[in-house]
Amino acid sequence: MSRIVLLDGGMGQELIRRSSLAPAPLWSAQVMMDEPEIVEAVHCDYIEAGAKVLTLNSYSATPERLARDASEELFRPLQARAIDIGRAAIGESEITIAGCLPPLFGSYHTENLPSFEVCLETYRRVVAEQQQAVDVFICETLSSIKEVKAAVQAAVESGKPVWCGMSAMDEDGTRLRSGELVSEGAAAAKEAGATAVLINCSWPEAVTQALPILAETGLPYGGYANGFTKADDLRLGGTVDGLKTREDLGPDQYADHAMGWVEAGATIVGGCCEVGPAHIQKLAQRLDQAGHQITGKL
Prior knowledge:
The chain has 11 helices and 11 strands. It is an alpha/beta fold. The chain has a 9-stranded parallel beta sheet with strand order 2-3-4-5-8-9-10-1-11.
């Protein structure tokens, strides 16, 4: 059967469940400062569940978010903290460590993006902090072609493989949340040098709808969905604790979706927000039972 890259799952919601602190706009970054041990514990739980790729917990540690919600001076310390925690969780195990290039200002919203040149320069700053510590870069939850081009170009300049994850409209998996076509986003990612294309932080149904479009690039493709009822209700600077969780996406149901993606040709699968260690464990079991080789590398 196929070699399937198994990613980890969501971090933010797991931290909310485990932390004694109230959620804040810089949630996952704040926890690294105040309760780093639970971030490491979540990483370890995903590895124990069978994930072969661990993504750095630096999603909210962009200069723009820090300048808005705390202080930009935290940028380098938080990036370093994410790397240290990830390395501690991996230890001597054969786990691929992935750098994270997220939306710069906030998830799902593209209306306040600066120019391509400004985005590119910021992504280059993130890449510079992470490139010596990671095996691959994952550009994730990108909702516009401008973000795709800037993030992928910056990551490609590192010389590392680059997997580009885009967020699609939940009810129309053919379009990015900006309204632009997934086909155009995937083509832009390929042109910029991405080595794989994915849909992430969207409904599983949107991932299913988008996969044939991703396949047209000729690149390896896949997806990792979220479990929110309506993710784009999240406002800029808001916290995800106000979003509602779907009740029809337990570990078995999520694995059904993901195994459908594999049957459709996907070779990279995992989970995003509200998809936790139990989901990844069930998916790993299903992949193993189907005879697939679970790996951390394409």
